[in-house]
Amino acid sequence: MYIGRWLRVVGFLLCAAAGIAWNGVVSCQPEMGGEDSSVKEQSGGESPVVADSSTTKDEPAGIDPKSVGYNAICPGGQGCLSNKGELKVGAAAVKITPQAYEVARWVYFDRRGFCPPPTPRSAFGAFHCGTLNAQASGSRRDCGRDGLCPRDKWTTDIECDENKACPSNPNITCNTQAKRCVVAYTQPDEDGSEKDGLPDFFLDCGRDRVCPCLDAQGKPSYYGKDKTCLAGDKPNPDYKGPDADGSEGDGEFQAMWMGGFGGNQPMQGVHDDTWARALIFETGETTVAIVSIDVVGYFFDEVQKIRKRVQELLSEGAVDYILVSSTHTHEGPDTMGQWGPRQSGVPYQTGFDPEYRKVLVEQIAQSVKQAYEKRQVAKLKVGRVQTGLKGLALDTRVPVVFDDTLLALHATNEKGETIATLVNWGNHPEVLANRNNYLSSDFCHYTREALEQGATAQDPSSAVQAKGGISIYLQGSIGGLIAPWGLEIKDLDGTVHKKDDWDRARALGQQVALRTQQALDKGQDITDTAVSIWAKAVKLTVENRVFHLAFSGGLLDRTITDYNDSLPFTEGNFPKVPTEVALIKVGPLTFYSMPGELDPQVLVGGYDGSYSHGYEIIRDDKYPGLREKMKKDAPKGPYLKERVPGTYKFFVGLGNDQLGYLLARWNFVLDEKNPYFSDAKGDHYEETNSLGPDTVPDLLKAYDELLTRVRQGTPSP
After folding, report:
1. Is the CB of residue 653 less than 8 Å from the CB of residue 478?
2. Computed from CA positions of residues 317, 318, 323, 327, in that sequence, does the dihedral angle turn out positive or negative?
3. Cα-to-chain-centroid distance, residue 649
4. Cα angle vertex 460, ends 457, 466, to 5°?
5. For residues 74 and 63, what is the distance between their CA atoms, to the nearest angstrom?
6. Burial 332-369 (b: 16+ CB within 10 A, else e)
7. Whole-prediction pTM value?
């Protein structure tokens, strides 16, 4: 799903393209700015977080958190000296659905046996969806509207015989022996679109997607080379002229690339809107915003832009801290840069559209502003249930460890009306896998929809009652890798769904909503609601050489520091990325974050099988020696979740950053010959999309210091 899968072949090409010396290993000299190199502190094993029992010290009022290495401390920080007062809560949902992009012609996508609707069948009776054909932007770019190039020939899944004709098309014949219709190139397109010098693999109608012509079926079509409609087409009455931004007729594909899986997958439309959903908690002078956004991941640099923009929209200090978490939907746009276009398997430019990048910052900031302006005196109710794994998720990496806790929070105003319903659970939103080209938040959409509007069922006990207000899905611990691949998922009426389609996504989403309702039905009213905030800055070493290439080639655009830019990226001169961890308390509720996809075993341990949910934690016949290695090397508790204070602990995955998989060090294994570019034997794909083996130990070390200050209740150095 990540950059490692398709960057493994790009070392020489990317270094050469960037004018960088290649040494055959991915130690190439980047042409980028940076600070002087520093040697990374090696943290050793993955030690448990230990609280400091030292006595607290008095601090001057209004301390600057940065003076003690923090990004936020409240109460006690400047502008948030007190958290005494009644609780106020505000919520808002702002669309972040991309609006400006061009689309491809479906016949230029790879052929698939199944594509989620509304993907159309081609004139040849085949489904095309997912990724663009490998040569779509190269040798196939001018093959005409039908997508057929000379020498093309393939067998379809349409049955035929001497008495049953194939679809009416000069390029389709019946192979009576195989009893299948066969597509074979026989002649150029009759409409004159082939070999006219204009690219045909996409509609060059500009970012507004309003084309100057319509084909015989009334579908959008672009001009021929003489700027007149192709043969058989007619002018589009809704067309008002070329796009003002110059994107129309420029020969460039202004695509919105979807984030996740292998890249080169353009967005073709919208199934359901994507959102920034913000929740504000305020007591006294202390105010915090938690925002969930429907994207695959979002870098810390962008979060800092949002914080600055919120200060401009409101006032400095109006919101003391903002925590942004990605739902990690794989049916949304690329917001990191690594899933853009490829040629011959090699990525050649970022997949993060620069215009959409600006829109995201503004819309997310607006969600915080609107939630802040809507805050009102509120009451909270919280509950939890254990979901289990069956029919909901799989742990696809051994050892099998999954924190199945679902936490639900319900905020109401003084009239008893819902302000917001928040659900916190961990699972990859990728039910539709890599076949879908329509924007969606995947199962998260159906969870929120059911909580807001209700979901019916033949058995009333399986129905979800509408709560109204704003519903928020907050992602949990999914780096195991926790996913719904291939599961048979039952809907609220018990119907089993097996295909990677919308019905299956709806079934999973509504099941999560039902369990949210069950958690709240037996939930607890919260009376102690004082808001407190601690956020700790940390720098993490980037050892992954694939990421070095991505930085050098401009695919990943984020701040990197602490390296000598006159030397290659090598051991002793690896760059670091600034990020942060945070802990927010609302009375007995604790929200604590990690900047990526945390392996559940780091969160809860579970090496005794207590979090394996009936599955064998390790199959000895498939992974010989791993069980003994686990017993010997896996760290002992207490684990992070045990050490974090609070009665209800909301783990926030992909919090303020997306640094890939965050893996336990004892089981971090690299391929000996080609580390990070190839998987080591066993379940070790995740390492190819991780910063390095020291990432989790360094994050736990930061949490060690943060939790010391939480327990002290003071920002003393």
Report:
1. yes
2. negative
3. 22
4. 75
5. 10
6. bbbbbbbbbbbeeebbbebbbbebbeeebbebbbbbbb
7. 0.91
413 pairs with which residues across the strands?
Answer: 378
pLDDT digits (tens, 9 = 90+) for 429-463: 999 999 999 999 999 999 999 999 999 999 999 99
Burial class (CB in 10 A: 0-12, 13-18, 19+), 138: exposed
CA-based end-to-end distance of the chain: 41
Token pair 């097996």 is found at 498
168: Cβ–Cβ under 8 A, 6 or more apart, which residues? none
pLDDT, tens digit, for every residue of 653-705? Answer: 999 999 999 999 999 999 999 999 999 998 899 999 999 999 999 999 999 99
pLDDT range class, residue 60, cuts 50, 70, 90:
low
- How far apart, in whole angstroms, are the C-alpha atoms of residue 675 and residue 704? 30
Alpha-carbon gap, residue 286 to 588, rounded angstroms: 16
The residue written with tokens 């997607």 in the block is 209
CA atoms lying within 13 Å on the CB side of residue 566: 1
Query: Which pair of structure tokens corresponds to residue 265?
Result: 């997958």
Give the Cα separation of 172 and 446 in Å (integer).
41
Length of the chain: 717
Rounded to 5 degrees, φ, ψ at 378 are -140, 160
Query: How far apart (Å, rounded) are the C-alpha atoms in residues 568 and 625?
Result: 37
Residues 6+ away with beta carbon under 8 Å from 556: 336, 337, 338, 350, 547, 550
Peptide bond into 60 cis (omega under 30): no
Collapse the DSSP code of 362 into the 3-class scheme (helix H, G, I; strand E, B; otherwise coil) and give the result. helix
Residue 441: C-alpha distances to residues 39, 292, 342 (Å): 41, 11, 24
Question: Dmax of the chain from CA atoms?
Answer: 92
Q: The tokens of 403 are what? A: 């924190």
- Measured CA to CA, the distance from residue 45 to residue 48 in angstroms comes to 9
Tokens of 452: 């807001």
Please give the Cα distance from 443 to 450 (Å, whole number). Answer: 11
Residue indicated by tokens 């579908």:
219
Spatial separation of the C-alpha atoms in residues 691 and 126, rounded to whole Å:
41
- Give the pairing of strands 418-425 and 470-475: parallel
606 sits in the region (left: phi over 0; alpha: psi -120 to 50; else beta) called: left
What residues are paired with 489 via a beta bridge? 497
Residue 458 bridge partners (DSSP): none
Decide: helix, strand or coil at residue 624.
Answer: coil
Cβ atoms of 419 and 90 within 8 Å: the answer is yes
Distance CA 179, CA 175 (A): 6
Q: Return the amino acid letter for 203.
A: L
**CA distances for 17 relative to 138, 255, 554, angstroms:** 18, 23, 11
24 pLDDT above the threshold of 80: no
Q: What is the DSSP-derived secondary structure letter of residue 66?
A: G
The tokens 């997310």 sit on which residue?
Answer: 364
DSSP string spanning 100-128?
Answer: ----B-GGGEEEES---TTPPB-TTS-EE
Half-sphere exposure of residue 105, counting CA atoms within 13 Å on the CB side?
27
* Pairwise CA distance, residues 550 & 260, whole Å: 16
Sign of CA dihedral 446, 447, 451, 456: positive
CA atoms in the 13 A half-sphere facing the CB of 153: 6
On the question of pLDDT at 605 being above 50, the answer is yes
Do 557 and 14 touch, CB atoms closer than 8 A?
no
